[in-house]
Amino acid sequence: MEKLYIGVDVGGMSIKAALVNKQGEIIYKSTKKTNSLEGGPGVLLKDIKELMIEHIEYAKKSGDVVKGIGFGIPGVVNNENGTIDYACNLGVENVNLRDYLSELNLPIYLSNDANVACLGEERFGAAKEYDNVVLLTLGTGIGGGVVIDDKLFEGVEGKGAELGHTVIVVDGEPCACGRRGCFEAYASASALLRYTRQEMKRNHDSMMWDYCKGDIDNVDGLTSFECAKKGDVSANLVIDTYVKYLSEGVLNFCNIFRPQVILLGGGISNQDKYLIEKVKKYCADRNYGYKNTPVVEIRVASLKNDAGVIGAACLAMDGDKK
Amino acid sequence: MEKLYIGVDVGGMSIKAALVNKQGEIIYKSTKKTNSLEGGPGVLLKDIKELMIEHIEYAKKSGDVVKGIGFGIPGVVNNENGTIDYACNLGVENVNLRDYLSELNLPIYLSNDANVACLGEERFGAAKEYDNVVLLTLGTGIGGGVVIDDKLFEGVEGKGAELGHTVIVVDGEPCACGRRGCFEAYASASALLRYTRQEMKRNHDSMMWDYCKGDIDNVDGLTSFECAKKGDVSANLVIDTYVKYLSEGVLNFCNIFRPQVILLGGGISNQDKYLIEKVKKYCADRNYGYKNTPVVEIRVASLKNDAGVIGAACLAMDGDKK
């Protein structure tokens, strides 16, 4: 009989669940489409409960036992009372997930999705040899996760580690959070697309126009990288701009947390030579402190699509230790 | 017989030491002038050792016992090996304080001065009812301290929590750390003086000129506040500018740490109505997250000149528990 933990990655497109053992291995997993934007929060809760029962049954049949369930939520949670306060991509507001699942008789843990991804990477992914880790997921926005001394840092009610919502340009670009100049408005994948389009409008001879078949609506996260690789000057300018803002944020988190490693996640983090190496160089040139201050390592997150379920399962493992 | 802890606040002007009990009360204290800029690091070490022996003797005579010594250092330390890596105000570089004091046969703890001040305030000062606290000391620069779940957060080697060195204006004002646009370059007391002088040069009719007796070199931290209180429009503009940058940084640390309280220290933090109340309002209007996210409290640090010695003693108390 093995102790297992269910990790659930609740996303705007799908709800992914997995049975994970203490070694971070996925024993079983399954997925449901997220229907709550159309169907309302009741549909989401019902789908989650069905997935949980499926996983608990699977464990039972294998002679194993589920010790707890962890959730990664794309939004604001209250980890003390188990509520999803607000998750616009799920169409959910003020829903108590812990109460709803109480009949399962299992401890229920919630955290923000980037938080659990960071925990998963620290335990079983790109930072498994370290205990002090910051993760930045570069997507539509920027999610942040922080692990300190092998423990997830979440802030009061689990509402901290909102690393994307830190202003790096006072009075800068408007951000979805209501402030102006947030890191997320300058270093998310969406910001990269903005820089790409701006540069294309400035230079109609750029190779990026060919790449997009003449239609600026075809710009995606690869446009600038692919054309930069072919030597397009404009594309390289776009990437330099992006690297600068991303690195300024990375340096801020070096100075604030002085972790052992900062991980970058999200699709564009796979651009090793054209992104990660440039960020490393920018940061090494501007390392804070005296000559004895070590340069913080910068790496690409490695668990990819499994980071959410494995990290969420780690939440439950940590709860089980208490 | 009472257990006592020596807290040492090593400053550019003076070395303050105090015997502190577990209730945070100062039993005895004394001070030496800091002579290391002229005399070199050897003088600093000798003066510190003499102060320590004086305090240990005092405790012995009272029938008490010293269990450890904590230091607050104005610079970069390595808390693992007990070294002051670099402290320009002390003229000290790469000096191992722990080794030098080894013949005292007491555990020696080092941390950055703002870190220990935060720990002191959290235990015995303005945040004593809380466990999650961020402190910003507004002086020539900005020092930062962070306590998470009643434990000082320091980062690897004690080199984290450099909250003043986080860029809030990419490509902005140059900072002593080598980057541009740091929070410290926009919200330190020095930045307030810069805004004051800039506005005086713009408006020669401002009351601030009278306050400075016509000499811009007389500008100090009170100039704008005192004239604003008398209704001077220019002085109010200066304060509004300062409040904006200070508050943007405060909001960043709300989103990163989501503490229970953020404390502001340093001389200008005493301007309650003209500074703290304005910062509170600016931040409340821009609180991150959904309606359930609590507004972080903002308070003035209360231990004043004793924050350093009490906080440094707390370092030793925490070490004694391990």
Give the second-level CATH assignment, the architecture of the largest domain in chain A.
Answer: 2-Layer Sandwich
End-to-end separation of chain A in angstroms reads: 21 Å
Oligomeric organization of the protein chains: homodimer
Structural class of chain A: alpha/beta
The major pleated sheet of chain A works out as: 5 strands, mixed
The CATH superfamily of the largest domain in chain A appears as: ATPase, nucleotide binding domain
Describe this structure in words.
Two copies of one chain form a homodimer. Chain A is an alpha/beta fold. Chain A has two domains: 3-125 and 305-321, ATPase, nucleotide binding domain (Nucleotidyltransferase, domain 5, 2-Layer Sandwich); 133-301, Nucleotidyltransferase, domain 5. In chain A, 39% of the residues lie in helices and 24% in strands. Chain A contains eleven helices and 13 strands. The first copy, chain A, has helices at residues 36-39, 41-61, 97-100, 113-124, 183-187, 189-202, 207-211, 223-229, 233-257, 272-284, 307-321, and strands at residues 3-10, 14-21, 26-33, 65-73, 76-78, 83-87, 92-96, 108-112, 133-138, 142-148, 151-153, 261-265, 297-300. In chain A, the strands form three sheets. A five-stranded mixed β-sheet of chain A has the order 3-2-1-4-8. A five-stranded mixed β-sheet of chain A has the order 11-10-9-12-13, sandwiched between helices. In chain A, a hairpin with a 3-residue loop joins strand 1 (3-10) and strand 2 (14-21). Chain A is globular and about 60 Å long. At the A-B interface, strand 6 and helix 9 of A face strand 6 and helix 9 of B.
